[in-house]
Amino acid sequence: MKTKLFALLLALAMLTAILPMAAVAEADRPTLTYWCLFENNASKSVDNYADLPMYQELMNRLNTNIVFTHPPTGMDKEQFSLLIASSSLPDIIEYDWYSRYPEGPQAAIDDGVIISLNEYLENGSLPNLAKVFENDPELAATCRTYEGDYYVFPFIRSDELMAQKGGGPTVRLDVLQKLGLDLPETIADWEEFFAKAQEIGYEHPFIARYDDIHGSSMSSSESVFLGAYGTYYTFFVDDGKIKFGPIEDGYKDYLIKMADWYAKGYIDPDFLTLDNSGLDGKMTGDVCVATFRSPDSGIGVWTKNMQATNPDVVFCAAKFPVLNEGDTRYFGAMNLRYQAGYSAAITTSCKDVEAALKLLDYAYSEEGRLLYNFGVEGISFEYDENGTPQFTDLIRNNPDGLSLKEAMILWCRNSAGGPFEKDAGPILAQRVGNQYQYDAPFFWDASIDWSKNLPRMVYSGEENSALNDIMNEIDTILEEMTVKIIIGDQSADAYDNYVATMKEAGIEEAIEIVQTAYDRMSK
After folding, report:
1. 14-37 burial, b if ≥16 CB within 10 A, otherwise e?
2. How far apart are CA 153 and CA 147, in angstroms?
3. Are 471 and 350 in contact (CB under 8 A)?
4. Quick check: 55 pLDDT over 80?
5. Exposed, middle or buried: residue 486 (CB in 10 Å: 0-12, 13-18, 19+)?
6. pLDDT confidence of residue 8
7. pLDDT digit string, tens, across residues 372-396
8. Is 516 helix (H, G, I), strand (E, B) or coil?
């Protein structure tokens, strides 16, 4: 299958002179070594990114060879640690330098692992990335260390993509209509929905993973209901002052409500152990009628699967709820413009820094942005009458039966991520044909005032180490408290004791660390 498909793609790619690159002598072009994750969507067609038509095209355009190395799936953390500890580094490492390197990116520079980009931004070697930073000072601030060193070629969300929230409250619209209810907007509305859904046979109407009930920065999840109580699962800023949501007013009331709903059976008891596969089964098995999910793997996939046997089934987005009608909701599934994962740094082992700079900077040019987001004109995309790139049938209706994402990854990196600015167009293309799926991210985004959410924070190595030490203990205390109170093992009266325990564990010191970093970034 891989041989057949790749032969077809190479034949098509002759239009853009991909094949003639073989005629270029190896000695005439620099070779760069590149370590990055391998997207599973590519596995049906290739085993290495060097064989992707997109990278064949990129190597041809820049007259540069790239030798890719990929860690085994699921072993990237261990392999990254071993790689850093070794004496032999590749020229480029694409990973999460913000949070995966011990004590942060400044330490990576100070330890002699990666280079600072400041000199090259200043001397004109990175014209495209420099322009991106110049046009967005807030983005630039998040891509440099506390000492002012730019260290990364970032994975960036475009302005339009910032509105494409990754997930939010998702409900069965057909069940709501059967019950004579409108989309729920307040906590009381949701409670009425759950109660009436139980009356028609849905024993546990709401199902979500624990991270989607409480929220988790590690899994990029967001609590559906916590924000209705005016607080958050982690740090936030309120009129310039840093606060930690679980010790603020509102968190106890949220726990009381969740415990009440759990006792009434509104929340499926499997939420503590549920994974995405189990969640899919609950929703498509007509066991539950509301959850937190993405517009694609949720609304899109579930609607298609269930309508095969029941054409009346409709999934759609609901707003992130508020406590009372007219309240402002400040917390939802927020996107950060700089997505730390999939960002690239040049190592100190790189012998041809000029070639590495040229390769990585190209992604932020107009031509590079098109290649990374849509691929090659005339093959993977064409311009429509409005001058907007649109995928061709090679991507939309792949002749070898590849899914949209499996076809996209061959020609561009938009289906996942990478060191480039990711556009919304390819994502929106996946949602054509289901208006509820298409509208969901905009609907979720419009229901939130994002002014209290923090940007990606920049800490010193000392701050980062101290904060991690404190928060590791705080997270353990917080999860124990939240779970025990929700499932009824402890009453909400225990909340004040848990807050005292978090203060003893250093949460007030952690708040001071975040405040210091926030004030420094705000200057």
Report:
1. eebebeeeeeeeeeeebebbbbbb
2. 17
3. no
4. yes
5. buried
6. 45
7. 999 999 999 999 999 989 999 999 8
8. helix
Q: Residue 325's pLDDT band (boundaries 50, 70, 90)?
A: very high
Please state, in angstroms and rounded to a whole number, the distance separating the CA atoms of residues 413 and 200. Answer: 45
Q: Cα(509)–Cα(410) distance, rounded to whole angstroms?
A: 48
Task: Please list, in sequence order, all residues whose beta carbon lies within 8 angstroms of the beta carbon of residue 155, skipping any fewer than 6 positions away.
Answer: 338, 339, 340, 341, 342, 343, 417, 418, 419, 420, 422
CA distance 168 to 179: 22
0.90 exceeded by pTM: no
- If one counts every other C-beta atom within 10 angstroms of the C-beta of residue 138, the result is 11
Amino acid at 353: V
Distance of CA 109 to the CA centre of its chain: 26
Structure token pair of residue 101: 């390197």
Q: Which two tokens stand for residue 209?
A: 């993973």
How far, in Å, are 167, 168, 308, 401, 452 from residue 437 at the CA level? 11, 12, 17, 23, 27
Q: pLDDT tens digits, residue range 188-236?
A: 999 999 999 999 999 999 998 887 777 654 444 568 899 999 999 999 9
Cα separations (Å) of 174 from 152, 186, 189, 362?
47, 19, 16, 48
What Rg value do the Cα atoms of the chain yield, rounded? 24
Phi/psi of residue 381, nearest 5 degrees:
-150, 160
- State how far the Cα of 241 lies from the Cα of 476, in Å rounded to an integer: 25
pLDDT above 90 covers what percent of the chain? 70
Looking at residues 405-424, what average pLDDT do you find?
A: 91
Query: Identity (one letter) of the amino acid at 163?
Result: A
Q: In the prediction, which pLDDT does 214 show?
A: 76
d(CA 490, CA 262): 13
Q: Pairing between strand 31-35 and 92-95?
A: parallel
Q: Which of 232, 123, 255, 287 is nearest to 453 (CA)?
A: 232
- What is the DSSP annotation of 456-494? -----HHHHHHHHHHHHHHHHHHHHHHHHHHTTSS-GGG
CA distances to 42, 47, 437 from 92, in Å: 21, 19, 37
Calculate mean pLDDT across residues 427-436: 72
Asked if residues 57 and 16 have their Cβ atoms less than 8 Å apart, the reply is yes
d(CA 240, CA 515): 9
Distance CA 438, CA 506 (A): 44
* Side-by-side strand order, sheet with 315-317: 290-293, 168-172, 315-317
CA 361, 363, 368, 373: dihedral to nearest 10 degrees? -170
- DSSP conformational letter for 100: S
Beta strands in 173-294 (DSSP E): 235-238, 241-244, 290-293
